[in-house]
Amino acid sequence: MPTYEGRNLQEAIDNGLAELGLARDEVTVDVIAEGKRGFLGFGRKPAVVNINKIEINVDSFNIAVPAPPKHHHHDLPHPHLPGHNPEKVTATAGTATMALVDDPPDPSARPAAGMTNAREQHIEAALAQVSAYVVNVTTALALPTTVKIEKTGRDKWTFFLATDREGLLIGKHGRTINSLQYLAQILFSHLTHSHDTVELNVGNYRERREQILEKLAVKTARDVIASGQPIFLDPMPSFERKVLHATLADNSYVITHSEGDEPKRYVVIERKKGSVI
User: Which residues are listed as membrane-spanning (predicted)?
Assistant: First the structure.
């Protein structure tokens, strides 16, 4: 088990990341020893950490997506959809089969039946077009992908992308999948004029990323409490910043807020004024 040392925890982590050639959000860090400063050079002990690269399991997929249709994303086809079935609807996205799996409806929040069916069919058509767009883009990137869509929240649709090249589709620091998600959201919002959100997930990347962000929030809060100084995190998308804010929302000693302009907006964690430890 590789370990890395430094005069303090941050230096030990930085040394490990430099040696591994990885970024902070690509690894998990276990603190073995926090280190001691000592007095006049006596009793000093280095901080020691264990750093492991986060591995995303690659499932075996036998379905490949053929070459995309010859049209631009703004000329995406309007597929004919069958009558709505709240349990499951099937359609086609480009040349890849797409399954729309809907959560059971909430009877207390449903409008008139005719209005509901029309809206649902409109949403389904938009989802099919967005799925076709995602398939076309990933195929153009030489990352053949199949898409399954599930309604994972009241106003949230998750596109589960299956590919045998997950690491490349995710990209460094999640930049590729996040950029594709941004474009998919713009297209979906343009087609539906709704406030529903679109999420793209590859394997269990989003779940792993959320765990990393939660650990980062807790660890950074401890550092802020110990030093009394604010810490400015790296820029990240709004949906990731929300994880940090939510994780520390009930913390009695620190507060969080975002600063900067998109796409370089970042989270600041600082001590609450008047907080006593």
Answer: none
